[in-house]
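Side project, low priority. Logging it here so it doesn't get lost.
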Amino acid sequence: MPRPIWSGAISFGLITIPVRLFPAVRKKGISFNQLDSQSGSRIKQKRVSAETGEEVPYENIVKGYEITKGNYVIISEEDLSALDPKKSRTIDIQEFVSLAEIDPVFFDNAYVIAPDELSAKAYAVLTQAMEASGMVAIATFVMRTKQYLAAVRAADGKLLISTMVYGDEVVDFDEIEAFEHLEDVVVKPAELAMAEQLIESLSEEFDPSKHEDDYRQSVLDLIERKAAGEELVAVVDVEPEESNVIDLAAALEASVKAAKAARERHPTATPKAAKKAKAKPKAKSKAKATKATASKRPKAKKAATRKSA
């Protein structure tokens, strides 16, 4: 059962709502230990001096920032403690914005905000009001001596908070030289039409349960088989044949046909567009319409940069 990692309150105008934060994501991975291939014993890492090669006791290790090659400014824990943000226990809502204005690149870690027993009513009021408006709260809060910029949003009667990176931490596309090749590219109408048709033929309602970490499961199976003493034969990968696609439109058309054939073989996989056509017309709430709107990076970057200033 998840345990709270932070407790405090949401500050909303003159209203204070006691809450707790729980992890919204439980990442799964496989950890390996480094072993000596001869003895099978664990490998230990030691902190040694680059000058003498001798191990340095933990109490003698300090933080240093390199200002020029080989020259460091020593920063003590006392120096950093003096700069720690005020240890506030509140999630201070600064403003409300549309979710469509925030590019997903700004989102970092996600948490669930749960109310205390005495704050359930105020929590429900704020959650329902945010769902009705379709707006997202931009807030700041301190966790483990670090101040975070965060986005608070409502979903299915619950509040979620995502920590965010600051505007100056997002890489500007103009800094990436690889995009210079796009300047001279000319897209033919037929190519664009086929690409749009291919996208439409592969469109589905997002269902996260359909996507699994096949590699992680394969590694777990491998570990289980080797632990059982099974002898495994290494499989040599066969390099795929190089393909030189000259007629892009023809390749797109062939892809569309292949996608349609796959649909016919699996009739239960109904295209997203067909599902919408069969469904009865239904007015979307402002909140859902806002979530469905595709965000534009330039706009999002400008908005986020302004907020982080």
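Brief comment: The two ends are 38 Å apart (CA to CA).
Revisit when time allows.
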